[in-house]
Amino acid sequence: MEFIVQSTFGEIAALLVLAAVVGFLGIVLRQPLIVSFIAVGLIAGPSALGLVQSAEQVKLLSELGIALLLFLVGIKLDVKLVRSLGTVSLFTGLGQVLFTSVFGYLIGLGLGLGHVTSLYVAVALTFSSTIIIVKLLSDKREIDALHGQIALGFLIVQDLVVVLAMIVLSAIGIGSAGEAEGAEGLLSVVLSGGAMVVMVILFVRFLANPLTERLAQAPELMMISAIALAAIFAAVGELVGLGKEVGGLLAGISLASTPYRETIAARLAPLRDFLLLFLICPHRVDRLVC
């Protein structure tokens, strides 16, 4: 295979061919597409064929895919349903995090681990993979259903809690001097998150409808603008510590009230499915971060 993967283009071409073959086998075996893509990552990774050497380029595509996937989830959110389920998702999500983390902490102590290590184990056992669950719900067309919306609320609560938990654990791990830094980081994340929410509210109220009306005159430009919005929100979300997932979701929510949301979602769905391959790409699977 070395003669094929001597360039980045060759690597991606080989990866796409492998994805098509494994994906077809997955369909024959009646497996979800996400399972096939995970298998592609394992096969193409350094532990097997070692197809992908241009990790940075592939990682860039995967990060864009994350932003776009959550953007399309956000753009399809029913704002009224979110309002009615927000409290349910918040309290049940926090309850699940607390319940699982307590038992994870006790398990860590039971295995003879230290207090800080047990806390890390507890946090690790608490959280789910937002990307995989969202994709499975989307494939089954259940993301708009009641249980899909509640599950999405769970995932968003988990994503926010993990950011705060990592800040607190970092402060605990590096001592009293780090506690002040941890508190500042926690406050920074909360304030940044609030600022992003306010920005979305202002965008929805004053800019979303007139902007999409103007962009609709050139459909290609509207698609590019939607991708740009997802990317910039994801970048800002990562910059302020909320993560690309939350940023992409907020970008989608900012356009969820426009009359063109279904058009945008339909046109970007094929691009999302293409980039999904790189979400479970070899460099992510072999580092066990998918």
Automatic annotation (TrEMBL):
Subcellular localization(s) per the UniProt record: Membrane
GO terms under biological process: proton transmembrane transport
GO MF annotations in UniProt: antiporter activity
Keyword annotations from UniProtKB, A to Z: Membrane, Transmembrane, Transmembrane helix, Transport
Residues covered by the Cation/H+ exchanger transmembrane domain: 17-278
UniProt name for this protein: Sodium/hydrogen exchanger
Positions of transmembrane segments: 12-29, 34-52, 58-75, 87-107, 119-138, 150-174, 186-208, 220-240
